[in-house]
Amino acid sequence: MARDFGDAVETKPFIAGETYIPASGKVVEGDDVAAMVDACLDMWLTAGRFADRFEAELARRFGLKHALLTVSGSAANLLAVTALTSPKLNGGLRPGDEVLTVAASFPTTVAPIIQNGCVPVFVDVNLATGNVLPERMAAAVGPKTKAIVLAHTLGNPFDLGAIAKLAEDQDLFLIEDCCDALGATYAGKPVGTFGDFATLSFYPAHHITTGEGGAVLSNKKSLSKLAESFRDWGRDCWCKPGCDDTCGKRFDQQMGDLPRGYDHKYTYSHLGYNLKVTDMQAAIGLTQLAKADRLIARRRENWIALTAALKAAGLEEWFILPEATPNSDPSWFGYLLTVRDHDRLDRAALVRRLEERRIGTRQLFGGNLLRQPAFRTIEHRVVGDLANTDKIMHDSFWIGVWPGIDAPRIAYMVETLATLVKELGR
Question: What phi, psi does 339 have (nearest 5°)?
Fold first, then answer.
């Protein structure tokens, strides 16, 4: 049996109240370690054969043509938004253009909008799904609106039927942040296949891990090439590391004010970054991707078990329990709980007591990003109110469903919640 190098799981004895139950974690096994050692022995160090295979396997899984590895999900979001600002793209984003999004979000879903000089337009979300209210999104479209950037909250797809149609009808770019949602589907199709770009994260908390890492996916070669340019220093050349003259015109072009024949490998068409991965990261990504379906299935099983146990314990009286978006099959990242009545039960006191009892908790990321120090002075627009977003900031938290959680842990989590509600509730 392969040794488990992760943070879990059932092979380790669980002692209620003593063994910490993380809200998220990785499952790393012997084949993952072997793949990393194999990559290390090559001493290639940058992206190589494993990166090529991982990109191909990612694209194949999603049924898309292009996948680009990068250093994180946050970097993937940055690359996707920044690619849309390229002067090579007709009708792309320009400073002052508006991008529709939500404030109940992880900061680096929204930050690239601001970093590229665009204006985020915020609308409210549904408390049970954590996702955008589609009717609010439609009302938010204005003459400066150019794009939509949304995440599938905690692995629960947003209403892609409504949002994708809105993007098509209004000729808007659509970026799907799938960092928390690998394996989720909407109308039987994988999330990430409805927009112009999809992004993924392989941070250890996510469905599969490469340590740090992420990816940008697209079905459009023109967009993928732009993202690749920004990822690879902003260069115009697309040769892979160690390759030369893929285009056959390395010394036969004239660009900008450079002399004709200037080396295409050192010609830059964008103000780019270096956001490439190493082959060691890609190697573990390949073995992790091979077991993704098993890990995702376990998350779904845990979500179902938690829901049944919470309802059986009568905790629906105290909490809004999460619901799958209609027409979707989520790939759950966490289990969202929202206190129904703040006057009866204080979220802050509850999560402190849960942590004291060794149950890991997380807030729904930034809560309301507009209340965060970094976002308070940004240029933005709000359509309608953000009442549900503010309630999430005050009253929501989530607990884990990752594969390291088993039946005894679920039972302890629910029993502890029930006990604390009796102690703290009014």
Answer: -60, 130
Residue 376 burial (CB count, 10 A): 9
CA torsion 183-188-189-190 (nearest 10°) is -10
Across all residues in the chain, what is the average pLDDT? 95
pLDDT in tens, 119-136: 999 999 999 999 999 999
Q: Are 147 and 171 in contact (CB under 8 A)?
A: no
Domain 1-234+269-426, architecture per CATH: 3-Layer(aba) Sandwich (3.40)
pLDDT tens digits for range 263-296: 788 889 999 999 999 999 999 999 999 999 999 9
Separation of alpha carbons 120 and 290, rounded Å = 37
d(CA 350, CA 420): 7
Question: What are the backbone angles phi and psi of residue 319, rounded to the nearest 5°?
Answer: -125, 145
Half-sphere exposure of 157 (CA within 13 A, CB side): 28
What share of the chain has pLDDT > 70, as a percent? Answer: 97
CA-CA distance, 276 to 72, in Å (whole number)? 10
Measured CA to CA, the distance from residue 66 to residue 220 in angstroms comes to 7
Average confidence (pLDDT) over 153-159: 98
Burial 266-278 (b: 16+ CB within 10 A, else e): ebbbbebbebbbb
How many helices (H) does the chain have, and how many strands (E)? 12, 14
Average pLDDT over residues 193-210: 97
Residue 183 has pLDDT above 50, yes or no: yes
Whether the bond between 9 and the residue before it is cis, its omega within 30 degrees of 0, is yes
Give me the residue spans of the domains in the chain. Answer: 1-234+269-426
> Could you tell me where the DSSP H helices lie in 201-250?
221-231
Beta strands in 273-385 (DSSP E): 319-320, 328-329, 335-339, 381-382
Q: Which of 152, 206, 264, 380 is flagged as catalytic?
A: 206
Considering only CA atoms, which of 308, 318, 378 is closest in space to residue 342? 318
The three-state secondary structure class of 220 is coil
380 is catalytic: no
Distance CA 80, CA 216 (A): 7
